[in-house]
TrEMBL record:
Record bears the keyword Signal: yes
Record's keyword terms, sorted: Signal
Signal peptide boundaries: 1-17
Organism from which the protein derives: Syntrophotalea acetylenivorans
Protein name: DUF4292 domain-containing protein
Length: 249
């Protein structure tokens, strides 16, 4: 009897303790998580693999990437042996492009259409930087609906003129996806993955798509440094000696 009791005690001690259920989250908490992300990530320096896709096909390349809010961007697209193929800089609403192999330097206003030539997604520089830094803009909304599913939360924000925004969170309240709608048509989708606890939970993978334009791009970060001090000079691009500046078409 003593042996049997000892075995029962031993087996019972091997059974893991039940995991307490996660506390239910409300809309206020979920929106506060977005505000916390907006405050936490303001700039970035690192390497990234960018993949762009549209109706004509897809392209993938490595790049050195600098980002700083509100809308400063510097990208150096690298060739197979690390040589710069394209340098792009956006600062104060101005876009500059250097093409070393062609000996060309182009400059013009940083319009969404011009940015789309390099990302396939027609976004402003400010929108691009915010989405890439895990800072999802919210629409102005009149009411909202929160639903809890087995694996996630979905928060729907209903705005004016049939505009809506759906936010998807995991059960811990981490934002995974955001979709912007006009009526039933999705205008823009953004998804995050590869969350890194060593980087304050920053996602190393960002995917952005514009269904109506059949265009998308994704970023896979590596060697990331968050919130470095990046002065305006880091986003300044000058034409090489002897190269005439052309107007961006």
């Amino acid at each position: 009897m003593l042996l049997v009791a000892s075995m029962v005690f031993l087996l019972a001690s091997c059974v893991p303790a039940p995991v307490p259920p996660r506390p239910l989250l409300n809309e206020q908490v979920l929106l506060q998580r977005l505000q916390a992300n907006a405050r936490a990530f303001n700039s970035l320096r690192g390497m990234a693999r960018i993949r762009t896709k549209d109706a004509k096909g897809s392209v993938s390349a490595r790049q050195v990437l600098l980002l700083a809010k509100p809308g400063n961007i510097r990208s150096e697209v690298l060739g197979p042996f690390g040589q710069p193929l394209l340098l792009l800089a956006a600062l104060d609403g101005e876009l500059k492009i250097s093409l070393p192999r062609e000996g060309r330097f182009l400059q013009g206003a940083a319009t969404p259409e011009r940015i789309a030539r390099f990302t396939r997604a027609a976004l402003t520089a400010e929108q691009l930087v915010r989405l890439a830094l895990y800072d999802v803009p919210l629409i102005a909304y009149r009411d909202s609906v929160l639903t809890r599913h087995e694996q996630n939360y979905q928060l729907m924000l209903n705005g004016a003129d049939t505009r809506r925004q759906q936010l998807e969170y995991d059960l811990s309240g981490r934002l995974l996806k955001a979709t912007y709608f006009r009526g039933e048509n999705p205008l823009l989708k953004v998804a995050y993955d590869g969350f890194d606890n060593d980087l304050q939970g920053f996602p190393r993978q960002v995917s952005v798509s514009l269904p109506e334009q059949e265009a998308s791009f994704s970023l896979a970060y590596s060697d990331v440094e968050l919130n470095p001090e990046l002065a305006a000079v880091h986003f300044t691009l000058q034409p090489p000696a002897g190269v005439v500046t052309e107007a961006l078409p």
